[in-house]
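Hi Y.,

Following your request, here is the sequence exactly as I used it, all 158 residues.
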Amino acid sequence: MDFKNIVNILKKQQKHIATMESCTGGGIANAITNIEGASEILEFSAVTYSNEYKMKMGVPKEVIEKYTVYSQQTANEMSKCISNFASSDYGIGVTGKLNRIDPKNQVGEDNVVFISIYNKEKKSYTECKITVNKTTRQQNKELIIEEVIKLLEKTIKE
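Below is the corresponding structure, written out as tokens. Let me know if you'd prefer a different format.
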């Protein structure tokens, strides 16, 4: 499946999606908005590279402090917070490190990314932890986006 099919399914279901991305830098929102009619299902997205802006979007400081910014718990909070902020049926949260050490957040595994898709109706999460091993950031982003597509397909068909 690809985002074209996902956009069409969400349009038929009259459902909406929002994203809060960190290491993908808006790549997921970009991939969705490359599809005609995406404005019917995507009304808001945020790129929150810093801890400060994750917290401004609603991610509890305590979660980041306890589990680190690079954790499944933080990805889950990101997906839930963006879903609530945008009043969307689904929220996508992505956080992780791609080919570099983060001087502001030196904890957490390098080249590991956490993905979360929040289903507001069911109050449930579809989660994934992946190791990215491509040479460039762009290749790693593409790998993450492919995984998001798989997870999203599973989530919207449940």
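The domain at 3-157 is CATH 3.90.950.20 (Maf protein).

Thanks again,
Q.
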